[in-house]
Amino acid sequence: MKEGIHPDYHTIKVVMTDGSEYTTRSTWGKEGDTLNLDIDPKTHPAWTGGTQQLLDRGGRLSRFKNKFGTLGVAKTEKK
């Protein structure tokens, strides 16, 4: 492998939004730096699969469902 192309891994301290902290290896910052998170993966819906509901009053979501709602679903014909 080529020399000098790999990033410099070092230990940093990560501080979560709830105040808990842990030490990990990273290429961010310098040895011993502290990374303070603005968004906590323990509580943010992107990582926890949050229960946010999609609200739409006749806007984009309704138009999308009307246009593509039956895609992949075969219509049955009555005889």
What's the short story on this structure?
The protein is an alpha+beta fold. It has helices at residues 45-48, 60-68, and strands at residues 10-15, 21-26, 34-36.
3D architecture notes:
By secondary structure, the protein is an alpha+beta fold. Helix content is 16%, strand content 19%. The protein is built from 2 helices and 3 strands. The protein has helices at residues 45-48, 60-68, and strands spanning 10-15, 21-26, 34-36. Strands 2-1-3 form a 3-stranded mixed sheet, with no helix packed on it. Strand 1 and strand 2 (21-26) form a beta hairpin. It is elongated and about 70 Å long. The N and C termini lie far apart (70 Å).
Q: What order do the helices and strands follow?
A: EEEHH
pLDDT below 50 for ≥5 consecutive residues: which ranges?
A: none
Largest sheet: 3 strands, mixed
Gap between N and C termini:
70 Å
Shape: elongated
Cα gyration radius (Å)? 24 Å
Portion in strands:
15-25%
Oligomer: single chain
Number of strands: 3
Helical residue percent? 10-25%
Please report the number of helical segments. Answer: 2
Alpha-beta classification: alpha+beta
Characteristics:
79 residues; alpha+beta; 3-stranded mixed sheet; 2 helices; 16% helix; elongated
Secondary-structure topology with pairs:
Elements: E1 10-15, E2 21-26, E3 34-36, H1 45-48, H2 60-68
Parallel strand pairs: 1-3
Antiparallel strand pairs: 1-2
